[in-house]
Amino acid sequence: MKPPRRQRVAIVGSGMAGLVAGYLLANDKEGRFEVEVLEMQDCLSLDSASYTLPRPRQPPFPPPCCSDAVSVPTNGTGTANGSTVKPKSASTIKTQTQTQTAETDEQDEGEERVDLPMRAFAAGYYDNLRKLYTHLGVTFEEPRFVYSLSTLASTGDSPTTKKRTQTDSQTYFIHSSNNHILPPIRPQGLSLLRWVIEAAYLFFWYTYFTFACFLIAPRRSEKSSIATKCGLITARTQGETLRSFLTRIHVPTYYTTRYFLPLMASVTTCTHDELLNFPARDIVTYARRTFRRPHYTVRGGVRQAEGKLSKGLKVKFGAKVTSVKTLEDGSGRVKVRWRWTHSSSAKGRSDDGRVGADSATSSSATAIAEREEHEEYEEEVYDKAIIAVTPDVVGSIFEPLANEMADIPTTSVQSVVHQDFARIGASSAHLRGDPRFQSRTIMATSSSSSSSRSNPTLPVSGPVSAAIHMFTDLHTGRTESVHEHRSSMLITTYPIDNAIDEAKILHRAKFTRVLRSARSREVVNGIFNLGLKSVNKEGEGEDGWKSGDGNVYLVGGWCWDGMVMLEGCIVSAIRVADALGVDVPWAR
């Protein structure tokens, strides 16, 4: 008996959500799916913004006076999602099958990978992500974070021209994750009396807010104003905003602006005002599930997971999807159209869809030029399509959601790898001088070996605590975080000025952060049937497109009713697998 035809599935995007969806379908027990990933870059996007550092040959955390200059590469560099990456040769930008093996788990002895953005995750909130990593045999470790909180004094009105140094900042508290260092480390220059008063104040309001998260539920809906062509109308939205919730439970502004918002803004990488527009349910749920739970990072970076998830997947690199459309012939099939982002992609393709070693060189110059002209755009018909990109991109390539995606806010975030210790010098030296900062061992968890299965939590060598310095501009409501990496490098995320010495910058990366609001929650929940019926901008009820209609599915960190994190990527991919009857091995 002839086996049934395998269904062709296109996955647009190769971030965590796209790779997990591809992994599940490609490993379907019944072998029903032929998966093809379409990626606009010349590499998979999950790890594309990250950076490989040389391992330090000197003790970690060099003195603040370190003046070694590192020049920014200026020749032959490309960009991927706004990140500076080393370009591949023309022959590598093509359709190919990923063949990463367990060898990708082993880093070169002289290198260390830095995840950009930082991929720390907490137990309790990231349960599906932890189960996935355990299933893949990825090793993760449990660092102890120590946060120094400081304010910055503005020297001008334009954030692009402000120049600040350590002398312009004032550290007012040093906090440890899960309060693993008690009593807290006293900041340098802060009097004992002021420190005691600050600690007592923080303890009271932190305890109050924690109890409030467990005892006071955010309102299910509240009135809000929606802009229309005819003016403003009042409508009920799905859930109370964080701003409203904090006001309702009477949390003081001092605690909010100096403690709560800087710490949460470092997680959400957005301004304080944007964070206050988040649904209160997101923050309350996150606070509940991460309370007193450890944080983890992947040893060797997310490329460990990327290599395992993409193993054997067929990937079209350099394919920028321009439209996804369900055919109107009643077949339910989906047409995907893309543009080759590199001319070599089209020139090097052979008839079977793979790169032919001699296909380009064997043609005349005229034939190649004609081929480039006719093959700049390409389209194929698939049985199903899974879109795994940010909402702004979804709106531009998938017409049924063009209007809805405009209601989901996004922002651009930058991370900088550098060796400019000017801003954190005194605070860093103060922390390293405290014996409690280095008094514990990092714990690593893995399921990749028999020994780790019998004893999943093993001590490993290395610095105990990861120092993260947070600087807040109270005028603009922005917080930047500076992570002291154990390789004696700094990673500044969401910088609020141009004060980093350009000569000491090794790498810049830009990525799109999807934000949340009461309206965006309404839109997302409507698409995935997760909540109340959505309303349109005229305040009327609407029954719009749902994920899965026309054999088109959405996955991503934003495709669930929660904060936009990697956990949402896993949850949404599992949702698609369930809809297609595919087994999820780590959920058994």
Automatic annotation (TrEMBL):
Polar residues: compositionally biased ranges: 77-94
Region Disordered: start-end pairs: 77-112, 344-377, 435-459
Protein name, entry field: Amine oxidase domain-containing protein
Ranges of biased composition (kind: Low complexity): 357-367
Transmembrane regions: 192-217
Native organism taxonomy: Eukaryota, Fungi, Dikarya, Ascomycota, Pezizomycotina
Keywords: Membrane, Transmembrane, Transmembrane helix
Keyword flag Zinc: no
InterPro entries according to UniProt: FAD/NAD-bd_sf (IPR036188), Zeta_carotene_desat/Oxidored (IPR050464)
Domain of life according to the entry: Eukaryota
Acidic residues bias (residue ranges): 103-112
Keyword GTP-binding: no
